[in-house]
Design a protein that fits this description.
Helices cover 25% and strands 15% of the residues.
């Protein structure tokens, strides 16, 4: 393992280091993109994360073995530090959260740290990894979209490195090349070779922390800061992604599921009874995951009114199918006692925080 001069100024808790960090140099023989990939879902033990994770895992199981799928094993990387009541339902490994206060209320900062720990400790049979999130639903069997050393990623319209060059240059100096080397992506969904992710993950973690520590960057990037950090970290390692718009759809802005693979329900869907979108205003009919922060949505949600795009109808139907078939959906499960221990002490060398 190679670590490049990482230290901390305890007076103001700023990281002082060369951001390029590597885990282990174990480059293996490249396999074709026809290889299976491991699905890695980062999650917390909050009720909001749990119910989404259960739906996501349900649809993984439904699509995994269909023709065209290259989905392999599945791991929920639980970065809350302790087992929860889904340990027996979803394959899970427990990892540590960041030191108290370090995420400054931005819980997504735990995601890269979770991947660093998981990659170091877990035995992952597949050569490739899909980084996924709880609010992803597999609408079609997902092939391996990566091409050897070129990972596949979804291009987000709001990730604009060129328009934020002054900020990007704080973390991606001119010596590294033009800002166009930074892809307009986040870390999810991404299908990437395991050995590449092992190199990128520690850099992604540290760039995330540096960005959060810089007030100008924090203000400019806000809730997508960690996405920019992954894009910058990849570019620092010279990794370019294949941009696949068909990787994902996002209702209500994408109207049809078509041949896309993942449905991402991050946006609220608000409509009047005429089937007209009322975005920014609570609709007469609505589905918004944030309506269920404290517990799961009820079974058998009402379908949208006529005229609403097919993608939104599909979303509600798929949520309803999952909740109808997942046992104990509306009841509190007995807390599980079987877990993979979070013995991650060796990984703390990447933080050097205390």
């Amino acid at each position: 393992m190679a670590i490049m001069g990482s230290v901390v100024d305890d007076s103001n808790r700023k990281l002082l280091f060369d951001p390029i960090l590597e885990m282990r140099d174990n480059m293996q023989k490249q396999k074709t993109s026809g290889s299976p990939f491991h699905v890695a879902l980062t999650a917390t033990d909050a009720p909001y994360s749990k119910w989404q994770s259960r739906i996501m895992y349900y649809w993984y199981k439904k699509k995994k073995d269909l023709p065209g799928s290259k989905m392999g094993g599945f791991t929920r990387i639980l970065h809350s530090g302790n087992p929860d009541n889904l340990m027996d339902e979803i394959p899970t490994i427990v990892v540590d959260s960041l030191p108290a206060g370090l995420d400054r209320g931005y819980i997504v900062l735990n995601r890269p740290w979770a991947f660093v720990q998981w990659l170091e400790k877990a035995t992952i049979e597949e050569e490739y990894i899909l980084m996924a999130e709880p609010d992803h639903i597999f609408v079609n069997p997902l092939p391996n979209l990566a091409d050897g050393g070129y990972p596949a990623a979804f291009p987000f319209f709001y990730i604009k490195p060129a328009e934020n060059e002054n900020i990007i240059r704080k973390f991606f100096p001119e010596k590294n090349g033009p800002v166009t080397k930074v892809d307009p992506i986040g870390n999810s969904p991404v299908i990437i070779k395991k050995d590449l992710l092992e190199k990128i993950a520690p850099t992604w973690m540290n760039v995330s922390l540096r960005m959060k520590d810089d007030s100008e960057t924090d203000k400019a990037f806000g809730w997508v800061l960690e996405m920019y950090a992954y894009a910058v970290a990849s570019a620092l390692h010279g990794v370019k992604h294949i941009l696949r718009k068909d990787f994902m759809l996002q209702p209500p802005w994408d109207f049809q599921t078509g041949k896309r693979f993942i449905l991402h329900y991050t946006y609220g869907c608000d409509y009047n009874l005429k089937g007209e979108l009322t975005y920014g205003k609570i609709g007469e009919w609505r589905f918004d995951k944030r309506s269920y922060l404290r517990g799961p949505p009820p079974r058998n949600l009402s379908l949208p009114p006529p005229g609403v795009p097919e993608s939104v109808v599909t979303l509600v139907k798929m949520v309803n199918e999952a909740t109808a078939n997942i046992p104990n959906w509306d009841t509190e499960l007995v807390k599980g006692h079987h877990s993979i221990p979070a013995s991650m002490t060796s990984s703390w060398k990447y933080l050097n925080m205390v």
